[in-house]
Design goal:
By secondary structure, the protein is an alpha/beta fold. It has a 6-stranded mixed beta sheet, with helices on both faces. The chain has a 6-stranded mixed beta sheet with strand order 18-21-22-15-23-24, sandwiched between helices. Strand 21, helix 17 (430-445) and strand 22 (449-453) form a beta-alpha-beta unit. Helix 5 packs parallel to helix 6 and helix 8 packs across helix 19 (486-493). It is globular.
Amino acid sequence: MTEYLLKMEAIEKSFSGTPVLKKVDFEVRPGEVHALMGENGAGKSTLIKILTGFFPKDGGKIYMDGRQVEINNRNDATKYGISAIYQELSLIPTLSVMQNIMLGKERTQTCLLRSKEMKKEAQQLIDRYGFGLKPDAIVETLPIAQRQTVEILKALNGKSRLIIMDEPTASLSNKESESLFQIIRQLKEQGVSIIYISHRLEEVYRLADRLTILRDGARVAVLDRKEIVPKDVAVMMIGKALNEATASENLRPPKPEVVLKTDRLTRKGVFQDISFELHKGEILGFSGLVGSGRTEVMRAVYGADNYDSGTVLLNGKPLPKNNIGKSISLGFGLVPEDRISQGFTPLLSIERNVALTNYDTLSAFGFVRVPQEKRLGAKMVKSLNIKPGNPLVHVGDLSGGNQQKAVLAKWLSRGLNVLIIDEPTAGIDIGAKDEIYKILENLAENGTSIILISSDLKEVLRVSHRILVMRKGKIFTEFSEGSITQEDLLMAESGITKKGA
């Protein structure tokens, strides 16, 4: 037997001429839990997509059991015993556990399904790993942790020897996470190898036999279990020079005028006891790992989702629950995380997209006042420097940065009291990022209060006046004065330190 089940050697990948992976080496031993860590944009997802056949590599070699292989599609990956479990599961909710496990591997005879035989196979697989599932249970009736178990069984039924788990605990409670950790230990005992991708340092410290760290598309460290020290790992992920260069000096005490206040806001199983204040002209950053509850809290505050208990006050008055129309009329705006499916209508022009949130003022007696609609579109294109400078261009044809400007234009044209903006520069080039930052800073200087949600630590530090860190559905700590670094934020997100509390 070779030392490595998987060996990726000098893997290269570029997009539009920009290197994303720079001769990356990555190896996994049989029966090993090998963690893969790095900041957003470090290259983790690209490396895994090459391994699972989603992206072709530009250079390098892949070996399985010491033999060079080519993985050009998902079927190739399956053939070599490689499977992936993502945060968004690939199960069919209305089918049973057995049907999901056997999907694509059905047993038939003269065009008829041999259901009894498939149920027996599924039960044998369940019993082998002691997962405590019933083959006839409908997947949509199961808690998230058990659905992940079904996904794992699907992989094992395909004779997977290497299972990739991408942020597997993002949607799990503490109890459910413990169950998953036990399953990982069982798989390891059975000789299955795990690639464990996570931002959660405490989980990696607990589970990993080895850890590979990527930064800016390059491998910067491979650590054995005894070398995995959370504080040191955080420094390696960020890089000392970068960390010092991007320390925030923007933190400042808030102005006394409170615009928005939440008190013990709770949605069972998602977030609890969320209390914070947003002050006039303040940019309040919300940081946290995937699954910490940041987006869910803000959707509830805005009125897009319901909540179970607590209160939201806008300028001292209760804001009605689950009422987007009322929020908009009171000067609330929301730029969602997924701008493509939720932020704009791609087949409509910039002009029409801007008008979507303004028809209450652009119409009379049920008819749109077209000249005003055109004037507003042209005004916002010029004001935000949306390119090309033609209000009639479809938003779907714009670059990512100009699409985001078009989404912002919908709200800035109304005159806002509060703007919630979620992942404002995801998928946007550096030049456009700087323009977005300047727009937000100008809004704050003119009295608009802004809540910024971002997974980009540099972005949170660059823009925020105060920073709240969420962890597992709760506010973990606050940074409101002094100088803080990316390392400080990352350690707080991982629950390792409360500096600044």
